[in-house]
Records
---
Amino acid sequence: MLIFEHSKAGRKGAPQSPKLKASVSDIPDSFLRKNSAALPEVSEMQAVRHYTQLSQKNFSIDTHFYPLGSCTMKYNPRACNTLAMLPGFLSRHPMAPEAQSQGFLACMYELQSMLSDVTGMAAFSLAPMAGAQGEFAGVAMIEAYHKSRGDDARKEILVPNAAHGTNPATATMCGFSVREIPTLDNGDVDLDALKEAVGPETAGLMLTNPSTLGVFERQIETIAKVVHEAGGLLYYDGANLNAILGKIRPGDMGFDVIHSNLHKTFSTPHGGGGPGAGAVGVAERLKPFLPLPVVTKEGEDYRWMTEKDLPQTIGRLSAFMGNAGVLLRAYIYMRMLGREGMVRVAEFATLNANYMMAEAKRRGFELAIPDRRASHEFIITLKNEARDLQVTAMDFAKRLLDLGYHAPTTYFPLLVPECLLIEPTETEAREVLDGFMDAMEQIREEAKTDIDLVKGAPYTLPVKRLDEVKAARQLDLAWKADKAK
Amino acid sequence: MPFIPHTEQEITEMLQAIGADDISALFEEIPAHLLAGELTGVPEGMTEMEISRLMHARASQHPQSVCFLGAGAYEHHIPAAVWEITTRGEYYSAYTPYQAEASQGTLQLTYEYQSMMTALTGMDVSNASLYDGASGLAEAVLMAVRGNRKSKLRKILVPTTVHPSYRKTTQTIVQGQNIELCEVPYDETTGVTSLDAFKQQAGDDITAVVIQQPNFFGNLESVDEITDWAHENNMLVIAVVNPLSLAVLKAPGDWGTTGADIACGDGQPLGAPLSAGGPYYGFICCTQALVRQMPGRIVGRTVDQDGKEGFVLTLQAREQHIRRSKATSNICTNQGLVVTASTIHMSILGASGLEKAAAACHANTISLVKQLSQIDGVEPAFNSTCFHEAVLKLKKPASEVLLALAEKNILGGYDLSGSYPELGDAILVCATEMRSDEEISAYAKVLAEVIA
């Protein structure tokens, strides 16, 4: 039932409105709206009950194991939320004077420093509001760098075919053409193809390492050399940073620019799809191009850098300071982890993934890349089950929901047929991982004995499988007062 | 102090199952000489008690000032229930609703959000949100370029009365795509953009015009005549609006004869705290004709196998995870949690609550401007109708005046001298429904002392 269907004309919530009897009658009619907007008219309690009940229809980290590959669904410590929402932070206007914002600015400055250290980069900007915007900032800096050298011929960005969709989409947004580089069966980039692809038109290569196939790119030094010798720059997509946090730094691998998804590695909440934060870090030669604002320290005082400090900046990405409250949560989380904690995150995320991979193999599931160590995630391919039992990765995903597990990432990376990309994260206990693998086995048994049971899943959720074709063909994107029954 | 549950015995058994001697063996594929040493730039870990002490100390470094500062971020009352519900783990710690059956809460809420935004803006459809108002304008411009197939030159008219940071952000984001943003100056007496000013900038082929209502100075633009003129000349109209103002001001869908084509803006006034600049969210709505040019996620209502109502992400063929380099945008994550807060906020206040808040903002600002203008050395810069912000000219340097006010714990407004040097010493002031008569009078009293 929609909130609009709880609505009764004339129902109001008096406690939430100002007492002031004000009107806008001095504003000429031509500027005013004629009818009130068709928002729901409900009591406060009806709204609270409705949205509490809706929340109960969600899976979340707080309620379920959520092994969504490449999304790093780890525990979001409550302290990060509580402390970021202290009144002293919440009531701070973004344009308040710097002298009255030193506490906030100190956190941002230290966050920049910690990110630089843990990734091996020279400097960071916290401006980007999501991973994709971080990618945009990074690729825009690559463009600005080449332009500043009068090198206008570099029109192409190289992207492995296993990359996230945002990589090619970002390159296009920045005005580049995209060339895909194939990946070998063992998960490494096809080096020969890369050597053939690079040249005077190469602006850069965007790489995720460990890759979306869940393995570490072993030839990274050679790749860096090939790209750099061709005059290109190397971009690090930080989606999988959790796998190597504190163990190996992108800067030491030869990357010139990186973005870090703070909502993955640094545990800020995913919030049902954001807000995220996609801080960008750069090597020395890209520092002049960082997006604004950046926090700097002079003596004991913190202040924003402006166009005067960074005349070659690629510019602004938001009206104010990006997702400031998200950045505070990441800061709190990083301070809690500390330097030893960072390394342990990578170690136990990797331990959990390799343990699940070993268990999957032992239980007879086929691995996409069987003979290598997993990073913080790994891939099961269900192509045999699809062939022999006519059961798909999507069927497994839906049946897992019934058994109390959020499904892993399905059908990504696109290279692997019928795949599940599984990322347990370091915060899950062994018995949960075992329970998940038991569920996978159970579903395979069910597919052998009662295929309809699996094909019809889920049964225990608020709805069964939804008609996506109808949703796309008969678009119903908003409740409209005049169309309601 | 990481959040890791493993016991020593479990670690041993798990390594045995893997067939590895120790945890470092799991990293053996990384070239050994590349492994990092100790992280010198990261301090030692802290317990929750320690970090709590630190953050309370940091937060208390900020004085609690009385806020007359707006300029794109506004202090409004937010019902306590809004963030209580929003930070429930089921909303807070869920991800993008890719598994629709396990995400009906977020999906239905987003559908309700889309419905509320189309009601406020008078447009046909809304997406599930963008990052913020500034980047939302950039996406609107890109969308107009894709949507206006009659136009070849990719020129957009942007009045200088549009928020300066919005213009800068848009420039950053569209610069790679051969799009020209042409500035349209405002009238120095009225502080709004005249139709003649648009006409003077217009060539044969303009893709779209941007109109901010109320504009950055708080003044109301002649949206009807600009919209009609733009449409007569084959341009699309992009409205940048404050969603709270739409409780009382004409919806973009009703501008002129046919309405704006795209409406965007920042959702912050609808339930997001100031929070040092974010997270807020960008909203974007459009006509049915442009729906396939929309960036970002969209939720649709459909039915399940039994014919029961349900909600899914739809029109995904536009998006980066399907279309890759040919997607309408690279956007992936949006601002879901803030949208959750905003949806609950709009439900609790309803249209009448938002109307009362908007009217109180307007009345307080009128009262503020009246009292401040009585001070010798302070005068209104323009003679137009405003909503809840106004420009005042000062006889003393604006930066000094604002600093002196700040020392008395009054955030007196936004210094316009950086972005609008032609105005001389001028500030943009705002009084929302949160300001009391006493606070407004106190501001007038202190300003009179400072400016004397």
---
Amino acid sequence: MPRLASENGSDDRLDREHVRQTFAAFVRDRDPGLRDELVLAHVKLVRYLAVRFANRGESIEDLIQVGTVGLIKAIDRFDIERGVEFTTYATPTIVGEMKRHFRDKGWAVKVPRRLQELNLAVNRAVERLSIELGRAATVADLAKELGASDEEIIEAQELGQAYNLLSLDSEVTSDGDLKTASLMDYVGTEDVELRLLEDKANLQRAFEVLDPRERIIVYLRFYENVSQAEIASRLHVSQMHISRLQARALEKLRRFLKVE
Amino acid sequence: MRQPLIPDMPDAGRGRAAVGLRIPALPEWVGVARLATAGIASRSGFSIEDIEDLKLAVAEACNCCIQNPGSGDVEIECVVDDRAIAITVQRAGANGGGPQSVTNDISPDAGGLGEFLIRALMDDVTYAFDRAAGTKLVMTRSLRT
């Protein structure tokens, strides 16, 4: 089994004891130098874990980087009083950090695509190699050609089909239904009317802040499309005055709707 | 042959199936265990991310069995239903003793870094190693919906 420190038993114990003492001192003093020392003492753990997650479509360097962030978090939060080995505590934190990284990167889409691309590459390579070799290509031939492991080739062949992405235009049929529909037909759209309904309701309440005269002006101007001059003559005031009242009314509405 | 590797999971869900695999205790065979695990787990509706975790855990468990002193093949048994997967990975001890007698759970750090990783990936893990009796890991993970 890979060990954190050396394979030699007594050295191992010495290293562990040293790490324990360093932790005790760090928890006490919070000395950044000790923290650096602890990070360096556990970089091997991060590398070990990064290598194991490397086949999920991220570079080892990136994984070591996010894993080290996890390691630093674990060092800062580690409580020596709880009596657990640091590695026990740190491993889930580092793994968690790496997994979060995959999730943030849209990992769920990425792996199928990796397999899918490999699936396509395998299919192309099978044809090419068969001609070049004058015999059917083996998994080992394909792995060498594509720079992948045997396992990945088999997986890509076996599972590649299952991960095919569906086109939005692909037909969706149900039994006994002669009419075919595409997947696109089932994708919802935003209902514009619904938005208008909401706006209307808001506006209705906003109107209550206007006095009766302002309400009439806004109504005539914007709902009945009556000109300011026409409104002025109907209300027996100057057009200038209507203009001022309208501006004030709109300002009131704006302020009310902004607060809402 | 011998008694089943895993006793029936208590309170088993629907679609229960047990699949066993025996591979030579050599690193180049671990990939086969990974592939088999992926196939079995995918039938139970585990997500792709979960399946990657399960494959990793099985590979680490196989490595554990291969690197510990032991004899004979590595045996892998997966029991799945619609709610969980239980995987047992084991290998007989150095003098051919049966792993069934391995009962001590000498966690948490007896298995090296691989065991830490398995514990980080699976819900529940028991690891047992005895020079004479062999290595045995039992790990379970439930299906999160």
